[in-house]
Amino acid sequence: MSSQLFALGIDAHDPRVLAHFWAGVLGWKPADAAPDDPRDGITLLPGDGDDTGFRIRLLPSQEPKAGPNRMHFDLTSTSPEQQQETVARALELGGRHIDVGQRPEEGHVVLADPEGNEFCVLESGNRFLAECGFVGALACDGSQQVGYFWSEALGWPLVWDQDEETAIRSPHGGPKITWGGPPVAPQSGRNRLHFDLAPSAGGDQQAEVDRLLALGATRLDVAENDPERGAPERVLLADPDGTEFCVLTPR
To answer: What region holds the VOC domain (predicted)?
Structure first.
């Protein structure tokens, strides 16, 4: 048994602003024609022909961003012109250039969304992500051990395991999830990006939580159902590096 990566959750001070930004950059659409209740966040779904395999949920939160995120998008380019077009589109939608220590000779462009969440627009010709789509990778700050953990948790095979760097990818395609190995920056507050998992079809939430705990996760908290908001019950866990993630009730 394994979990399904149901969504990438992004905490947002203004979910509508970030939903507009990421829908415009990625070409994704809101899950419903009517605007979502801002208390519950906004869900974006991949566009036609996009094999990403999970959704994005922009979730309301007033917690400040504490240092660089442990996870960011790597967006691919098929040509220098497409890279320039992606950067220009992101800037027009409210993104900005940022300096994270990248060297001038590196071909990727580092940007931040309107709330400071980092992402990269890669140069064309990236061989590691050659078979991936526009969303080429979720690049994570994490250890080799945590790469092994997520491979078991999701049932995704390792597609890279060298020099303490790891990567996994769904057997059905989509982006790779990568971990850069040591040094892993210490946790500094709640991570603004996190995985939302759902038990596989016919699975049980508690049985899945128990399985993830046996693999090396730790329990952090449980958020109960709120009948007025209809928010799904979720169990909050952390992976072996201390990065938070949620296990949702089956749908």
So the answer is: 131-250
